[in-house]
């Protein structure tokens, strides 16, 4: 059996791809709900927020400037925090990160609305989606774009060109389904918000919790198989020569 200890989590496309598509759908739904609930503030699309930040600065709109800057910073912090948590959790990273996301989606309903400059109500959702980007990685150790589409569309277009020129990246074929899953989730999120308002966030919260349970069961059931990564795995977007991070929880068993 090939050594999978240095592969992404989950190690095999058989387990990684379904989770990637379901997570992309969850992100699309949460972003759509948040966009409608928080006056067209993107929960995970930082390119859009960056454009609006620039417009706010140019218009001397300091409330808007603070609003978009704080969301961008918090999303970045989520990716930072999620990567550290993933390193600590080892092969249980998927279930741990998913349950944290589920809790944050639900907590958002309890946080005060805040002000225009500081939309406190949106912060837990943004943090959850930032964390989600540290959840999965492709064969090359790059974070899979499961909360935004720009990188997905670019990689797909470049992959088609590389299909003509030479062999494309192994994860090339996944880009179109990821876009489809994110788009489908956004449509579902739009309907959910129309029916339930801000309580619609309970749906991605519940779905993330369900995925966390499934990930935990599979991690235990399929232990030491190619479907689940080994004791340690490199962190997303680490240097190709970086060694896997050994942690206490991951070293057990």
Structure commentary:
It is a single chain. The protein is globular, with a radius of gyration of 18 Å. The longest helix is centred in the first third of the chain and has 28 residues, at 62-89. It has helices at 13-37, 46-58, 62-89, 93-107, 123-132, 150-165, 175-196, 202-221, 248-251. The protein is built from 9 helices and no strands. α3 crosses α5 and α4 (93-107) packs antiparallel against α5 (123-132). Helix content is 60%, strand content 0%. The protein starts with 12 loop residues before the first helix and ends with a helix. It has 253 residues and is mostly helical.
Task: Write a concise keyword list for the protein shown above.
single chain; 253 residues; mainly alpha; 9 helices; disordered C terminus
Sum this structure up briefly.
60% of the residues lie in helices and 0% in strands. With 253 residues, it is mainly α.
Write the layout of secondary structure elements.
Blueprint: H1 13-37, H2 46-58, H3 62-89, H4 93-107, H5 123-132, H6 150-165, H7 175-196, H8 202-221, H9 248-251
Largest sheet, in brief, is: none
Proportion of helical residues: 55-70%
Radius of gyration: 18 Å
Question: What is the CA–CA distance across the termini?
Answer: 19 Å
- The proportion of residues in beta strands is under 5%
| Gross morphology | globular
């Amino acid at each position: 059996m090939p050594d999978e200890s240095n592969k992404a989590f989950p190690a095999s496309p058989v387990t990684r791809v379904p989770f990637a598509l379901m997570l992309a759908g969850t992100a699309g739904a949460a972003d759509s709900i948040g966009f409608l609930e928080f006056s067209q503030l993107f929960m995970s699309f930082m390119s859009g927020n960056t454009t609006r930040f620039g417009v706010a600065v140019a218009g001397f709109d300091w409330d808007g400037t603070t609003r978009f800057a704080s969301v961008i910073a918090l999303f970045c912090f989520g990716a930072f925090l999620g990567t550290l948590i993933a390193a600590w959790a080892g092969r249980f990273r998927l279930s741990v990160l998913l349950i944290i996301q589920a809790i944050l989606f639900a907590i958002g309903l309890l946080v005060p609305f805040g002000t225009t400059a500081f939309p406190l109500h949106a912060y837990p959702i943004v943090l959850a989606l930032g964390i989600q980007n540290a959840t999965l990685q492709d064969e090359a150790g790059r974070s899979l774009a499961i909360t935004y589409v720009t990188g997905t569309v670019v990689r797909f277009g470049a992959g088609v060109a590389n299909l003509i020129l030479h062999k494309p990246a192994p994860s090339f074929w996944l880009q179109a389904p990821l876009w489809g899953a994110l788009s489908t989730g956004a449509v579902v999120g739009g309907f959910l918000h129309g029916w339930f308002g801000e309580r619609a966030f309970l749906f991605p919260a519940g779905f993330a919790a369900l995925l966390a349970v499934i990930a935990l069961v599979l991690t235990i059931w399929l232990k030491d198989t190619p479907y689940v990564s080994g004791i340690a795995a490199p962190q997303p977007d680490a240097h190709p020569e970086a060694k896997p991070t050994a942690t206490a929880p991951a070293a057990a068993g």
